[in-house]
Design goal:
The complex is a heterodimer of chains A (335) and B (305).
Chain A lengths: L9 H5 L8 H11 L1 H32 L8 H29 L2 H8 L1 H5 L6 H31 L18 H4 L3 H22 L2 H21 L9 E5 L1 E4 L2 E4 L9 E8 L15 H6 L3 E7 L4 H29 L3
Antiparallel strand pairs in A: 1-5, 2-3, 4-5
Chain B lengths: L1 E12 L2 E12 L3 E5 L6 H8 L7 E6 L8 H6 E4 L11 H10 L6 H10 L13 H14 L4 E4 L8 H18 L2 E6 L5 H4 L2 E6 L2 E7 H7 E7 L10 E9 L2 E8 L11 E4 L2 H10 L9 H8 L6
Parallel strand pairs in B: 3-7, 3-8, 5-6, 6-7
Antiparallel strand pairs in B: 1-2, 1-4, 8-9, 10-12, 10-13, 11-12
Helix pairs in contact in B: 4-5, 5-6
Classes of the chains: A mainly alpha (335), B alpha/beta (305).
């Protein structure tokens, strides 16, 4: 409540050099200015935490009673897969909300209400002022995301690993879950927030900036989840031996304890070429004669943590870039 | 030290010029009234001086050679923007503390004492304050950083006459106490004499007049004479504005030499600051500027409507 009162010395007033306003004091100003937004954010985080706890405790009890094969043993156990999917969607939405309701309005509100002309004519530079606004808010959002991500990890821990060849809702690779690991959820929330801040700086009007954040962040999240993510590292390829019988074939691969993400599989020659359309219609005897195999393109399950690290890395780099771009924009543009 | 100095300053918004070729040197230690009609470019000029806008062309320095918006300028200039924007959802005391956290020099105790003197309720939100109280809070924030130059953009516009009087009285008290320079814009012409000792007139994006009020009052006269008579000798007196009222003609004139006397058949009266401001505003072609601009204007033929 008490402002740091520094009596101005005559020296400070007439000196050519000016000291920068300490970041700690800027953060105090930010906490005061955004008290209401911080309150609402903590309410949302608290509601999520309570909802996860309220459903997680009975889920864990059910899993403990049912033993290792609890899932599928009862109707209730299967229902929890639906609850899991609902939570995954809600958490994806929470990151978007941080961008739309905290990030996007941050600068347009100041510009539209004229308070930017107040803030930007105080001793603090626009760059430090924006850093003082964005860093504490992004830090608090990241802490909330870490907590919720950790609780969500606990929530879904009883679910078994996925079956071969498909990504079940509880597989760590499932697109709606991959980015809900604590660190990555924090990364996505910070990315959404800084994306909103940048769009607000560029667009300067609250509602259009919020709409742009919805569209742009949504598009990036969709593209990353649907396709980009699986190309962080070049996929591996292996040839599986195939048993050809008249009218059909079968093959099997032992993947070990970590399930891979299979990106594609097709019949081909031992040297790697895939079969043409006409060749695929040949007889089982022809296939056996030419030692046709099944080429499987996949990301090994062991790459999970590498992929998490790559995604977190580019999210943080993109957030830093967006923040720098927002600073450049507000330094160039009038208040 | 000139608190604001500009040369060839111009600002364009898309297709319209808000400021054109402004050359100005305002010395320190004055209370400067920047006067002009709506849309004259006052806000643009003040926002450029405060570092919020960048000029399209020309140079401007503040506080004796500092770039507007530079670190020294931000510390040394207190700025209250038009409508005195503040964070409406904060209590007055929190608004003050927030502003304190954005500054290096900050006199919190004096600010609190000032607000207590003015009976601004500190625990009320800014939204709940009256227009006069909001303006006082914004001025207090600008003063608490102990600026060397205070820039106020239309500080009186939203105030009723009583609040206007209180605001100016308290401002004058601070000026006397702290010895700071003040530049304020206004389209309220009345009572300027009591407040300002330096006048700048801006009209249609161009400077018309700049000078110390005392000097302006000394060189301007109102001549009243018969309406059918031709204007007095142009070599002797520059006519700023002529107004015909029935059989009488009223001329706002500028003496080209000290001690000039009224020509025969004309009555000479001292001009008030209001007469001068209105006379120039009615005649956008008239100029009286220090430096080369003044020489050109005073040496040329008299401007008549």
């Amino acid at each position: 409540m008490t402002a740091a009162a520094q009596p101005a010395s005559q020296n400070q007033q007439s000196g050519k050099q000016t000291a920068a306003v300490p970041l700690r004091r800027l953060m105090r100003a930010t906490a005061r200015q955004h008290r209401t937004a911080l309150l609402w954010t903590s309410i949302v985080v608290a509601v999520l935490a309570i909802a996860l706890a309220a459903t997680g405790v009975p889920l864990h009890e059910l899993a403990a009673r049912g033993g290792p094969n609890w899932y599928g043993a009862s109707r209730a156990s299967v229902d929890y897969a639906g609850v899991l999917q609902a939570f995954a969607l809600i958490l994806q939405l929470a990151a978007l909300l941080a961008g739309m309701f905290l990030g996007a309005p941050l600068l347009p509100r100041e510009i539209q209400e004229g308070t930017a002309r107040l803030a930007w004519t105080q001793a603090v530079s626009r760059m430090r002022w924006l850093l003082g606004q964005v860093l504490p808010l992004a830090g608090l959002l990241a802490l909330g995301a870490l907590a919720i991500g950790a609780e969500f990890g606990w929530w879904l821990s009883p679910f078994p690993n996925s079956a071969v060849g498909q990504i079940a809702a509880w597989s760590p690779w499932w697109p709606l879950r991959f980015n809900l690991n604590p660190l990555l959820l924090a990364g996505w929330v910070v990315f959404a927030f800084t994306f909103g801040v940048f769009l607000g700086a560029a667009i300067r009007r609250t509602l259009p900036a919020m709409a742009a954040t919805l569209v742009c962040y949504g598009a990036v999240l969709f593209e990353v989840s649907a396709s980009w993510r699986m190309h962080y590292l070049a996929p591996l390829r292996l040839a599986a031996a195939v048993q050809f019988r008249p009218g059909g074939y079968s093959y099997g691969v032992y993947w070990g304890s970590q399930q891979p993400v299979i990106m594609s599989q097709a019949l081909g020659w031992p040297d790697g070429r895939l079969l043409s359309g006409a060749e695929r219609l040949r007889s089982a005897a022809w296939m056996r004669l030419h030692h046709i195999v099944m080429w499987i393109t996949y990301q090994p399950g062991s790459r999970y943590h590498a992929f998490q690290a790559i995604e977190l890395g580019w999210l943080l780099a993109a957030s830093a870039f967006l923040l720098a771009a927002a600073i450049i924009v507000i330094r160039q543009r009038p208040a | 030290m000139n608190v604001i100095e500009c040369r060839g300053l111009a600002k364009r918004y898309r297709h319209t010029w808000a400021l054109r070729d402004c050359g100005l040197a305002i010395p320190g230690g004055h209370v400067v009234a920047l006067v002009g009609p709506n849309g004259a470019g006052k806000t643009t000029l003040l926002n450029i001086a405060a570092g919020l806008l960048r000029p399209t062309a020309g140079d401007i320095t503040v506080l004796g050679g500092q770039r507007p918006g530079s670190g020294v300028a931000r510390v040394g200039i207190g700025f209250v923007s038009q409508d005195a924007p503040l964070y409406g959802h904060l209590r007055a005391v929190d608004m003050l503390a927030l502003a304190g956290n954005l500054n290096i020099t900050w006199d919190r105790d004096r600010a609190l004492a000032r607000l207590a003197d003015l009976r601004v309720p500190l625990d009320r939100t800014v939204h709940a304050l009256s227009g006069g109280q909001r303006a006082q809070l914004a001025l207090t924030i600008a003063l608490a950083k102990r600026p060397r130059l205070l820039i106020l953009d239309e500080p009186l516009a939203s105030l009723d006459p009583l609040a206007r009087h209180e605001f100016m009285a308290s401002l004058m008290g601070e000026v006397a106490e702290q010895g700071l320079s003040v530049v304020f814009s206004s389209h309220v012409v009345a009572e300027l004499e009591r407040i300002a000792d330096y006048l700048v007139i801006l009209n249609n994006g161009q400077l018309q007049l700049a000078g110390v009020v005392e000097d302006l009052l000394a060189v301007h006269r109102i001549l009243t004479g018969p309406g059918n008579q031709s204007a007095p000798d142009a070599q002797f007196i520059a006519v700023v504005h002529a107004r015909q009222a029935g059989a009488q003609a009223h001329l706002l004139v500028r003496n080209s030499a000290p001690g000039a006397t009224a020509p025969q058949g004309w009555r000479s009266d001292p001009a008030s600051l209001e007469d001068i401001v209105l006379g120039y505003l009615r005649d956008p072609g008239a100029r009286m500027l220090p430096g080369p601009a003044m020489a050109a204007s005073a040496g040329g033929p008299a401007v008549t409507p």
